[in-house]
Design brief:
13 strands; 393 residues; alpha/beta; single chain; Nucleotidyltransferase, domain 5; 5-stranded mixed sheet; 6-stranded mixed sheet
Length: 393
């Protein structure tokens, strides 16, 4: 293991890794970083995505669904994910033409298998917990540098939701002195960062607005098992939303719950889709109409979150990232639901929207290694700021 070069040499190169709830694959970003805290400067050098094979994705979705499976499965998947993360790092460096010795550190989110930040009764005790797997050891072994992982658990220990974590880095990179901004990431779950104009970290809010692509992805697979998603929103665009089904979907206590709040596949997974399809069957809806309704529901819940919980109401600017930003029909619906807001994508601001969250975990790792608190208590609900991340050397 070489020295922690990040301590003495700036700027440094770091890799950020993200595996989201859609379980599509690993997003990797090579980032040049200097400084820390509000003095942070960052530039994405390269990025790529490595898709999971069909068998691995099926296993990931089963393990994260809440289905009872043997501990052996989680043990083996933890190691397999670590190897795939290391593969992504090596592929990224090969594409960028950068030797591994130049990488100072890696920040790896891992993959969320269960998220229970609200205390539950377990073994006679009240327990809050979150579980992200993806063994950091193969990454450290192959690259020979420190790996920061398991970010969320420290925030949960401080009474927080352990999510969302990206509002901290959104504040570092996208905060404006003159505009009230919202940054909406739409992965499997949709999460928002609310940044008041000229505000400090104590003014930042963030929470999960509800399902993002997760429900639409499951519906697409029901229509055609070969589909992973509604590509370019084509199915949704060919249908007509049903107000009756939309009312059924919007009658969800999660949307009325006040932040801090987070959600995941445990709520909007297969059982939720079965209930949705049962109601759609009662209404006699065509598959395209069900997809169109699910798409509109995502846009409506985003707008509702701003109306109910934003400190400034509807944003002047909304930056949409994640897989949802590649769905033209979903973007059209968001613009329709947010009149007056300038809805754009990170590319409009010089960033790679597909790798925005991977960049975030490189930055969160940088803060951890500098000993800087890297959560946003106004977003997670933690009692105080904490340094998130465990370091593998």
């Amino acid at each position: 293991m070489r020295d922690f070069v990040w301590k003495g040499a700036e700027p440094v190169l770091a890799i950020g890794l993200m595996s989201g709830t859609s379980a599509d694959g690993v997003d990797a970003a090579l980032v040049e970083i200097s400084g820390c805290g509000r003095k942070t400067k960052a530039r994405q050098v390269a990025g790529l995505s490595i898709p999971y094979g069909a068998a691995m994705r099926e296993r990931l979705l089963r393990l994260a669904s809440g289905e009872s499976l043997p501990a052996r499965e989680f043990c083996l998947m933890n190691r397999l994910l670590g190897e795939r993360f290391a593969d992504a790092c090596e592929a990224l460096l090969a594409e960028a033409g950068v030797p591994r010795e130049r990488v100072a550190f890696v920040g790896s989110h891992g993959h969320t298998f269960w998220h229970a930040p609200v205390p539950e009764e377990y073994a006679g005790e009240s327990v809050a917990a979150t579980l992200q797997l993806g063994d950091p050891s193969p990454i450290s072994e192959r690259l020979g540098c420190p790996v920061v992982s398991d970010f969320r658990a420290r925030d949960v220990a401080a009474g927080g939701q352990g999510a969302p974590l990206v509002p901290y880095t959104d504040w570092l990179l996208f905060g404006s002195e003159t505009e009230n901004c919202a940054l909406q990431n739409i992965g499997g779950i949709a999460n928002i960062s609310l940044l008041p104009a000229g505000g400090g970290l104590d003014t930042v809010m963030g929470f999960d607005t509800g399902p993002g692509n997760m429900v639409m992805d499951q519906l697409a697979a029901r229509i055609d098992p070969a589909l992973r998603c509604d590509l370019d929103g084509r199915i949704a665009a060919s249908g007509r939303p049903s107000e009756a089904l939309l009312a059924f979907l919007m009658d969800d206590p999660y949307y009325a719950a006040r932040p801090p709040k987070t959600t995941g596949r445990e709520k909007y997974g297969p059982a939720y889709v079965e209930r949705l399809l049962a109601r759609a069957g009662e209404l006699g809806l065509a598959p395209a109409d069900v997809m169109a309704t699910a798409c509109l529901c995502v846009a409506r819940t985003i707008a509702l979150a701003c109306e109910r919980f934003s400190p400034f109401g509807l944003p002047q600017r909304m930056v949409v990232s994640g897989g949802g930003a590649r769905n033209p029909e979903l973007l059209r619906r968001i613009r329709e639901c947010l009149p007056g807001a300038r809805v754009c994508v990170p590319e409009d601001l010089g960033w790679d929207g597909d790798r925005k969250e991977a960049v975030a975990f490189a930055l969160l790792a940088n803060e951890c290694l500098h000993g800087v608190c890297n959560n946003a208590p106004g977003a997670t609900g933690a009692r105080h700021g904490v340094v998130m991340g465990q370091i593998s050397c």
